[in-house]
Structures are given as structure tokens and as C-alpha cells.
Specification:
transmembrane helix, transmembrane, mainly alpha, 116 residues, Spore_V_AE, SpoVA
């Protein structure tokens, strides 16, 4: 059943993004920003963790999960280290994903001829 919920939740997030671009006439950058902020707001309201429990990868793979990770890390570290924890918490939780994106992008640029 987890696969069905992952498909439904992940698909719904993607449908919302597509509707923002098609019906709302928003650019991909605006749409991505709205989805990241939505994930952050849902995490601030303690609604994103139950969504992850329900849908698994359907909630952790879309871009809304990045907003969730930023907010989750910031709130977790803010409780332990105060205002400084907000900044360090953001980087601590998301650094592995961002580092991987940079490394794999660099490797792809070495293998393929980038257009620029």
C-alpha cells in the first residue's frame, strides 16, 4: 500500500506544480519557489513528517522535501543552539544533498560536452 500512497502523494505534488505553470502561467523558478516554501510551511506546522510516514518517497523525493529539510534542520538546531543554530541547522541537514548535486554535476560536465 505504501507504493500507492507514494504514487498518489508524489503525483499530487507534481500536478500542483504543473497547474501552477500551466494555469497560473508561472515560470518554473516561481513554481519551484512556491513548492519549496510550501514544504517549509508544512514542516513548520508539523504536517510534513506525517506525510512522509504516509507516503515515503512520494513525499521525500519532490522539491517540497527540500523546504521541509531546511525548516526541520533549522528548528531542530535552534532549540539546541539558539539563533546560531538556525543557520547551522540549515547547512547541516542539507549539505550532503547539495554536495552530491555539485559533485555529480561536475562529473557530468566532464563526461558530456556542456552547452554554454
Amino acid at each position: 500500500m505504501i507504493y500507492v500512497w507514494a504514487f498518489v502523494v508524489g503525483g499530487l505534488i507534481c500536478v500542483i506544480g504543473q497547474l501552477l505553470m500551466d494555469v497560473g502561467r508561472l515560470t518554473p523558478a516561481h513554481t519551484m519557489t512556491i513548492l519549496v516554501v510550501s514544504g517549509a510551511i508544512l514542516d513548520g506546522l508539523n504536517l510534513y513528517d506525517p506525510l512522509i510516514q504516509l507516503a515515503g518517497a512520494g513525499a521525500t523525493v519532490p522539491i517540497t522535501s527540500f523546504g521541509h529539510a531546511l525548516t526541520h534542520g533549522a528548528l531542530m538546531e535552534a532549540g539546541q543552539h539558539g539563533i546560531v543554530g538556525v543557520i547551522t541547522g540549515i547547512f547541516e541537514v542539507t549539505s550532503a544533498g547539495i554536495s552530491a548535486a555539485i559533485v555529480f554535476s561536475f562529473l557530468a560536465a566532464l563526461v558530456f560536452k556542456p552547452k554554454g
